[in-house]
Specification:
The protein contains nine helices and four strands; from the N terminus they run E-H-E-E-E-H-H-H-H-H-H-H-H. With 242 residues, it is α+β, with helices and mostly antiparallel strands. A four-stranded mixed sheet has the order 2-1-3-4, covered by helices on one side. Helix 1 links the parallel strand 1 and strand 2. The longest helix has 25 residues. The mean pLDDT is 92.
Length: 242
């Protein structure tokens, strides 16, 4: 069901598409409502920075919006919700072409499968949970109280988070399975679209790079196991810091 204001919900495309004649030069007022450490927000930032779209990032939910999740992207007065929908909607403008059917399949698979499985792997491990909490800053400033609790509570929190993610995502596969699927789809290609970086390559790095930044132990091991670490690094080194 749409929000009362007619905004799109998660997995729901815009009721009114953006103008078909818009080009990147037409993107004059772009604001991303985000959290800097949020995987879908990092992914959207990666696309905007890679395609050289000027934007303003604002921490937190969009004030006054009926849609109360992040990311939210305002583009020339139009609001777009859900990171996968943002990528699909902007692709014709910032990449010069729409996503192919295969790309759209993988954009959804990465967003609603791989990313959540990575969250479960990270937050389901007490040690990596503590590393991520430190990266976010829960042991600094007004978060300091929670920073004191996390080392003690992390083993219990990791169990609670895993159960919640499983409950909210029935049929969620292990991260290794998603990465194995992606490697099979990628095959021997240098990039998903062939010889140049495309939107799915950017999304792949965008959903995972924050775990590396946080210093977690699982992400490089998982990529290495899936024979995707070299691919991941080759894209990451060509992306501006998302």
């Amino acid at each position: 069901m749409p929000t009362p204001s007619g905004l799109n919900l998660e997995r729901e495309e815009l009721k009114e598409p953006l103008p078909a004649d818009w080009t990147k030069a037409d993107l004059k007022n772009v604001t991303l409502y985000q959290q800097f450490y949020s995987m879908p927000c990092v992914k959207v930032r990666a696309h905007l920075t890679y395609t050289l779209v000027h934007f303003t990032a604002r921490e937190g939910k969009k004030p006054g919006s009926d849609y109360e999740k992040i990311p939210v992207l305002d583009v020339n007065g139009r609001q777009i919700n859900d990171s996968a929908i943002i990528v699909k909607t902007l692709a014709p403008i910032i990449y010069g072409r729409p996503l192919t059917d295969e790309e759209w399949h993988w954009e959804q698979r990465l967003t609603y499968g791989t990313m959540i499985a990575a969250e479960k792997t990270c937050f389901g491990d007490a040690t990596d949970l503590k590393k991520f909490a430190h990266y976010v800053g829960f042991d600094k400033g007004w978060h300091g109280f929670w920073g004191l609790l996390i080392p003690i509570a992390a083993p219990i929190l990791s169990i609670v988070i895993k159960k919640k993610l499983d409950k909210n995502n029935p049929g969620l596969l292990p991260l290794d399975d998603y990465l194995k699927e992606y490697k099979a789809a990628l095959g021997d290609r240098e990039y998903f679209t062939g010889n140049s970086i495309g939107p799915i390559d950017v999304s792949f790095v965008g959903i995972l790079v924050v775990f590396e930044k946080a210093g977690t132990s699982f992400i490089k091991a998982a990529l290495q196991k899936a024979k995707l670490l070299q691919y991941y690094n080759s894209i990451k080194m060509r992306l501006p810091n998302p």
